[in-house]
Amino acid sequence: MKKFKYIAMGLICGSLMLGSCGEFGDLNMDPNRPSDPLTSSLLTGSQRFITNVVGDATSVLYSQHLAEKQYTEASRYQTIYFDFNAFYSGPLMNLQRIIELNTDEETRLDVSSAGSNNNQIAVARILKAYYFSVLTDRWGEIPYSNALQGAANFAPQYDTQEFIYNDLLKELEEAAAQIDEGQSVQGDFLFNGNMDNWRRFANSLRMVLSLRLSNVAPQVAQSNFVSAYQGGILTADFMYPYLAEANNQNPWFARYLTRVDYAISNTLHDYMAPLNDPRLPVYADPAAESGSINPMPYGVTNTVAGSITNAEVSYLGSFYRGQSSPLPILTVSQLNFSLAEAAHRGWIAESAADLYEDAIRASMEANGVYDPARFDAFMAQADVAWSDARALELIGNQKWVALFLQGFEAWSEWRRLGYPELSPAPDALNQSREIPRRQAYPTTERDINTSSWNEAVSRQGPDELDTRIWWDVN
To answer: Which pLDDT value is given to residue 159?
Structure first.
């Protein structure tokens, strides 16, 4: 059997971006730990990193679901450069190693104890596609086809987002087809080894990503969307589970342990409250002073924020910030909105109006506030009721509400659809004073991977918050 000097769970050695630890002989070997990685441990470690996506705060501020109460710089777009190195050195390297170990003839039999080779590879490919989709939607062009090669390539080139998206759609389709039904994988705490759910997640994610291309590659978008839908999609919300313990707790719970810095934004409140949306009291707790839901002004200076007392505003609802409260990865409501849009575009022969209602109903059910009579009254309002002429506006607005705390997805859909019509932070700190359209590369790429960085910037545009990525043409 080959000996692999690789530490499970994505420990960082040397360059984070490239994930290569180098060779140090037996001096770097721990005699109390096995040198051959357990693929089940690699998978668990890769999945745990998802909390950095679903629990991200900056994207929620971009989407204006929440406003900052004390230190408001993030909601005013002060930070330009964001680091993607941990994605590459952690979960992506772990998943690539799972694929390699299950492919190599010298190791594939040994690691099959954690599940069939095909299933381990399929799950790793699906999760890789998920992570890469998050990366490319944040930064645009990224190292992709040349990444994860370790010492073989310390300066990976960047791929265009068009190439990345086409390959992600292919990867998801092939991974779903690769699954051995009736078998399982170990180390999977997301679906507990249920391969039918992994297949459905691959198809569901492929549907979501297909819609991203609706304005730039409509034929590719339609064919992939229809194929994924026909393959079977998720029928229950896909949630990231947290535990009532410090090592695996909800990140919003952890944030509130030290200070109360996130309140419901006036942007979201002022859209939901006039509609008597029953989800609003779930999204936000009553303000201590008034006993009613009072929002925090979004994107104001620290001075203005400081003039508002803690007791005056409503903080993130306890439903979402309990220590073990799960957070959504992909929901039935989100999928139904996607299907409603596809029906409106004529991609599927179903009722866009019915699917739109199903999406809102599913969101209310997930938040524990669905009541048939109240739902009918909500749907009858002029700003909610289905209209073919206003289809994308209605879908965009209500999808934004339903994507509460799914910051990256809400931000991406706002960029793609142009709805809701969000205004920038009134006291924005970035040069253009506009809502960011992407995030800038880590400065380590500019300083170390300079040639590849230069090529990407020359194709995509200046490395700043206002440069639009390939699919963002709305």
So the answer is: 98
Question: How far is CA 231 from each of CA 121, 234, 289, 377, rounded to the nearest angstrom?
Answer: 19, 10, 52, 35
Look at residue 319 in the predicted model and tell me its pLDDT.
Answer: 97
CA dihedral 123, 127, 133, 135 (to 10 degrees): -150
Q: What angle do CA 22, 25, 31 make, to 5 degrees?
A: 115
Whole-number Cα distances in Å, 134 to 5, 78, 157, 282, 411 = 29, 21, 18, 27, 11
Predicted confidence at residue 154, as pLDDT, reads 85
What is the rounded CA–CA span in Å between residue 264 and residue 269?
7
Closest CA to 187 of 2, 12, 37: 37
Q: How far is residue 398 from each of residues 391, 395, 419, 464, measured CA to CA in Å?
A: 11, 5, 9, 30
Radius of gyration of the chain (CA): 23
- What's the DSSP call for residue 92? I
Strands 158-159 and 142-143: antiparallel
The model scores a pTM over 0.90: yes
Cβ atoms of residues 408 and 59 within 8 Å = yes
The pLDDT, as a whole number, for residue 75 is: 97
Q: Give the mean pLDDT per block of 10 residues along the chain (474 residues).
A: 36 36 40 62 98 98 97 97 97 97 96 96 98 98 94 92 98 98 95 97 98 98 98 98 97 94 97 98 97 98 96 97 98 98 98 98 98 98 98 98 98 98 97 96 96 98 98 94
> Token digits for 58?
């900056």
Residue 211's nearest CA partner among 120, 90, 341, 305 is 341
Which residue from 43, 44, 35 is spatially nearest to 5, judged by alpha carbons?
35
**449-454, long-range: CB < 8 A, 24+ apart:** 449/17, 449/143, 449/155, 449/156, 451/155, 452/143, 452/155, 452/156, 452/157, 452/158, 453/158
From CA 284, how far away is CA 383, in angstroms rounded? 22
CB 415 within 8 A of CB 474: yes
Rounded Cα distance, 68 and 362, in Å: 29
Q: How many residues does the chain have?
A: 474
Q: How many CB atoms lie within 10 A of CB 450?
A: 11
**Residue 36's pLDDT is what?**
52
How many whole angstroms separate alpha carbon 64 and alpha carbon 72? 12
Return the pLDDT at 37.
Answer: 67
Helices within 55-155 (DSSP H only): 58-62, 85-87, 93-103, 108-111, 117-139
Q: What domains does the chain contain, in order, with CATH numbers?
A: 37-65+80-241+326-460 (1.25.40.390), 246-321 (no CATH)
